[in-house]
Amino acid sequence: MANETSTPMHDLKDLYIEQLQDLYDAETQIISALPKMEKAASSPELKKGFKLHLEQTQTHIKRLQEIFSGLGTSFKGVPCEAMKGLMKEGDAVINMQGDPDVKDAALIATAQRVEHYEMAVYGTVRTFAEHLAERDARKLLQKTLDEEGETDKKLTKLAEGSLFKNGINAKALNGDPISADSPAKKTRADSSPAESPVKKKRADSASADSPLKKTRVKA
User: Fold this and answer.
1) Is 5 strand, coil or helix?
2) How many other CB atoms sit within 10 Å of the CB of residue 53?
3) What's the longest Cα–Cα distance across the chain?
4) What's the pLDDT at 76?
5) How far from chain centre, in Å, is Cα 145?
6) Which residues contact residue 208 at a Cβ distance below 8 angstroms, ignoring those fewer than 6 apart?
7) 145 in the same domain as 192
8) Which residue has the higher pLDDT, 218 or 122?
9) Are residues 23 and 109 both part of a single domain?
């Protein structure tokens, strides 16, 4: 979005171009982030989704370049600060430690924040293009907007699952399972030894040579 270094806005077309430049910068940031998100994901379906969206985003950039060419203007503008913030959050998720399913759920949350930002801006510039009678641009922008919406739905399906398959959110419910060699597991095992004093006392009270058993035998 525009900041103090932006070109002055004199009419809707100026704003339209500025918003397109914002989108272009946002898409280039996403191009850089998606391979890292794919690598950080554990779910094969999520990895595949990030890979496919990378290819899709490359197409989105080509469409924007086509629009800029039609306008006779440069696609270079001020950096998209909003996307920078989202990418910073994304880097924190990529580097987080913990249960793989929980991390996948966090990656989906991050990806959907990005999608929702893109959908908001694409919807805005699509409407601007309509007011400016930029019909070809409007069609291209609508196509991208539809694809962003479909990507968001796919991410939701991965998170929530379906009638016959648990989603990533459900898998993340129980958190990180304790491995056999982990300190926590060993501590739990040590706190409940097989030959605890209580168990020994119970065994001794009901042993073959106990006074109670001898009394029963004499009787």
Assistant:
1) coil
2) 23
3) 111
4) 84
5) 19
6) none
7) no
8) 122
9) yes
Residue among 86, 145, 138, 139 at smallest CA distance from 121: 145
Q: Which helix (H) or strand (E) holds 162?
A: strand 161-162
Backbone angles phi, psi at 162, to 5 degrees: -140, -175
Q: Are residues 203 and 112 part of one domain? A: no
Same-domain status, 109 and 192: no
- Are 168 and 108 in contact by the 8 Å Cβ rule? The answer is yes
* 213 confidence band (pLDDT: 50, 70, 90): very low
54 in Cβ contact with 31 (< 8 Å): yes
Domain range spanning residue 207? 183-218
Rounded mean pLDDT of 76-92? 92
In a domain, 1, yes or no: no
Which residue, among 117, 121, 119, 168, has the nearest Cα to 146 in the 3D structure? 119
As a residue count, the chain comes to 219
Paired tokens of 54: 């990378």
Q: How many domains does the chain have?
A: 2
